[in-house]
Amino acid sequence: MQQIRHIREESRISVKELSKVIGTDVSTFYHYETGRRTPDFNQCWKIVNALNQLGANCTFSDVFPNPLVNKTDGKVA
């Protein structure tokens, strides 16, 4: 599960502001947040870099946790 929305809201960053920095439409970004669309690898990095540029303090794995890592024991499935 992506954590884009949680980190964005926690950092008080608007969708409009973030969309502008990464160069995408607001509607496209909403699709990323809801999981209707999956950003490609480069777009993921743009999102993480934009979040940090706008005041969030996050890493790639904070925003896009590894889906293969078990949350309870931290081991790769």
Computed structural class = mainly alpha
Number of helices: 5
| Biggest sheet details | none
The H/E string reads: HHHHH
Report helical residue fraction: 40-55%
State which percent range the strand residues make up: under 5%
Question: How widely separated are the two ends?
Answer: 16 Å
Low-confidence stretches: none
What is the β-strand count?
Answer: 0
Basic shape: globular
Rg measurement, Å: 13 Å
Mean pLDDT: 90
Q: Name the quaternary structure.
A: single chain
Describe the structure.
The protein is mostly helical. It is built from 5 helices and no strands. Helix 2 (15-22) packs across helix 3 (26-34). The longest helix has 13 residues, at 41-53. 14% of the residues are buried.
Short description:
With 77 residues, the protein is an all-alpha fold. The protein is built from 5 helices and no strands. The mean pLDDT is 90.
Reconstruct the topology from this structure.
Layout: H1 4-10, H2 15-22, H3 26-34, H4 41-53, H5 60-63
Features:
single chain; 53% helix
